[in-house]
Amino acid sequence: MAERKVKKIKAEDKESAPGKVKVYDLKGGVAGEADLPAAFRTEVRPDVIHRAVVAIEANRRQPYAPKPDAGARHSVSTWGKGRGVSRVQRIKGSSTGAQSPNNVGGRRAHPPKVEKDLGKKINRKELSLAKLSALSATGQAELVKARGHQFKEELTVPVVVQDDLEGVKTTKEAVEALESIGVYDDVARAAEGKKVRAGRGKMRGRRYRVPRSLLVVLSAECDGGRSMRNLPGVEVATPPQLNAEMLAPGGAPGRLMVVSEKALGTIGGWAR
Question: Rounded CA gap, 4 and 22, in Å?
Fold first, then answer.
């Protein structure tokens, strides 16, 4: 698969970096303009983003191991030598091999252990740089399109919406607002991409895989978040909850982000 080229924006390159974005109301009209915080002028570093996302995913893994007696719950004995057969353990009263690591249904020679540390270490400054870098990528339309997100061509990214978005109480109203703004096509894309997971995971409470869609950032837990959090592929978060994985799922920068004016002001306080 061809590697996707990522345009890098350096922090000192302020003239070419994003400066102002439009502010939209719930009807899709332009209500004004807003200045993007300095954090959006961070250089996009796909290598650092990928490293941080891998570490976040690894540190979320749950240790696992089989039961101590798995594959060893048999009454077995060995026939010994002199019979022209292998000396594996066999079920008593039968010639069926059991319990040994090389037998069907036997124990594993080296099973996974809960003592194993599955996490990955990463420097705090590197983690912070990854978050700012992934945030900066959300303000570059070419990267957002390269991720496969669908939205109206005339929209500026990130999509800044008036604070009325935080007061939307029902999912029906939220859908109408997203359609008017011009980002609901991406939610529909996620709904159409819902697939049954391959493998054992479908039996373990994660039957479906759904593509990532909008990242909705609100200033606080509110009705607006509750009305949108069940839409396919949509994630709702507050600025303190944001990390590199939310902003760049799978380590690919450029997620389509919808943010309220108040939340954008909170992000403006971030600094490296």
Answer: 28
Give the chain's mean pLDDT. Answer: 92
DSSP 124: H
Cβ contact 185:151 at 8 Å: yes
CA 241 – CA 244 distance, rounded (Å):
10
What angle separates helix 124-137 from helix 46-59, to the nearest 10 degrees?
A: 120
Kindly report the pTM of this predicted structure.
0.85
Closest residue by Cα to residue 165 from 236, 223, 240: 223
Which tops the pLDDT comparison, 10 or 70?
70
Q: Where are the beta strands (DSSP E) in 131-173?
A: 159-161
CA 126 remoteness from chain centre: 18
Buried b or exposed e, range 118-130, using 16+ CB within 10 angstroms: eeeebeeeebbbb
**Higher-scoring residue by pLDDT: 12, 23:** 23
Neighbours of 115 (CB within 10 A): 7
Residues of 54-93 as b/e, b for ≥16 C-beta within 10 angstroms?
Answer: bbbeeeeeeeeeeeeeebeebebeeeeeeeeeeebbbeee
Q: Are 189 and 150 in contact (CB under 8 A)?
A: yes
Residues 157 and 149 sit within 8 Å (Cβ to Cβ): no
The helix or strand, by DSSP H or E, that contains position 51, with its residue range, turns out to be helix 46-59
Asked if residues 131 and 247 have their Cβ atoms less than 8 Å apart, the reply is: yes
> Tell me, what's the pLDDT at 18?
53
CA atoms within 13 A of residue 15's CA, in its CB half-sphere: 0
Burial class (CB in 10 A: 0-12, 13-18, 19+), 188: middle
Tokens 């895989």, located at residue:
209
